[in-house]
Structures are given as structure tokens and as C-alpha cells.
């Protein structure tokens, strides 16, 4: 069932979303050559703790997971697409990093992700990340009252496929509110004018996941969490929590 949020609830979700935005900004600033993924996780923990928020990631265990997730961020490097577990790995010049972070406060959740290069960026990685951001922006632009879920999916897929990138199969965005994952699912590819009608009060986590090699397949690491490209090419992941309102889409995790 899709819960429609009140305007007051959306305002409360914005406050939680801003904690996520602050955490991602702090992690991005701290990320540099020689910094470990565990150190980035600590940066995010500090932001959440200072804001009186908890992490919906920490201890999360969906049906596919072998173990509960042990961190407050997902840190996916190079050919890792999503769900990377922070480790002692120290970032190297030219690494492509995707950081996914969530927060829970006052009964409401927020979820967002960014991708960026560390040190000297490869031109191909710059194009990949820019395309992921354009796909996210296109999906958000389509998230308006009167459209349907297929319009969001089509907008994202058109940008990704048009640039020659793969779209991670079986994964996409999701509804969000009192819990991090709620109905409805938000596909990253679809037909316009089809699917669930978009209504005022729906809140969605819209999240393109792009694979540089053009294929859609992935494999799972032995840790049971990290999902990697099967062809070894790099990946990018972007995400915002977005409220659908009569005044247009409201990005609750917008970063300054």
C-alpha cells in the first residue's frame, strides 16, 4: 500500500533529508587519496549522531542478505555498483566512489547517494557520473502530479540508454517514509504513460544505477552485499528522496 504523506509529514521528512545531505557532503569532503572506507563511515556516523538521528542501514537485513549490514553508508568503489560494505581499503588516485547514506529521525527516513572521482578523474568516469546525475534530474522532473510511474522510469532510461550505459537489472528506487523501503517500486526503465498514477503526498527515492560497459548484469560478492558489474567496468549511483506535490517535485535531500 502506498502511503500519501501530509504536507506536515513532508516538512518533517525534509528535516531528516537534510541530515542525509549533510552526511554526504561531509563524506565527500573527507574522501581523498589514502582515506579508508571505514574512516568515511565514521564521518557519516558523526553527522548522524550530532543530529540525533539513527541509521536505517545499520543492522538492516533484507531477505537476500546473509548478514545484517554493518555500517551507516554503502561505499562502492570502481566496479562495485551498490551496497558496498566499508572496509579498510584506502582510496587511490582515480578511484570512482559511490556513497549511499540514510537517516531516521522523528519517525521519518531519508535516503540519498552520490558518485564522484577521487584525485585525478578519468574522462570516462566524469561522463558516467554526469550522465547519472542527468538521469536523476530527468527522473525528478517527471515526478509530477498527473504523470505515471512509467514517466519517471522512461525519463531515467532514456538518458542512460542514450549515453550507451547499462541499467542495473532487478534494482531501482522505492517509496520511502516511516521506513526506508516502502511501496511503490520505482523502475529505472519503462514505458511512458504506464503504471501507478503520481499523486500529491507520494514520496519516492529515485536512484539511477549506471554500468559503463553497457550491460545490465551484476554479480554478488562473497560478503552477500556488494553488487559488481560482471564485465569489470565501472558504475555510478545517484539518488534523492523526492516528494511529489501540487507545486512540483520537492527534493528533500537536496545538498547546498
What report would you give on this structure?
This protein is an alpha+beta fold. 28% of the residues lie in helices and 25% in strands. It is built from 4 helices and 14 strands. It has a 5-stranded antiparallel sheet. A hairpin with a 2-residue loop joins strand 3 and strand 4 (108-117). Helix 1 packs antiparallel against helix 2 and helix 3 packs antiparallel against helix 4 (149-162). Substrate binds at residues 83, 181. It catalyses: Release of N-terminal amino acids, preferentially methionine, from peptides and arylamides. It holds the Pfam family Peptidase_M24. One of its GO terms (molecular function) is initiator methionyl aminopeptidase activity.
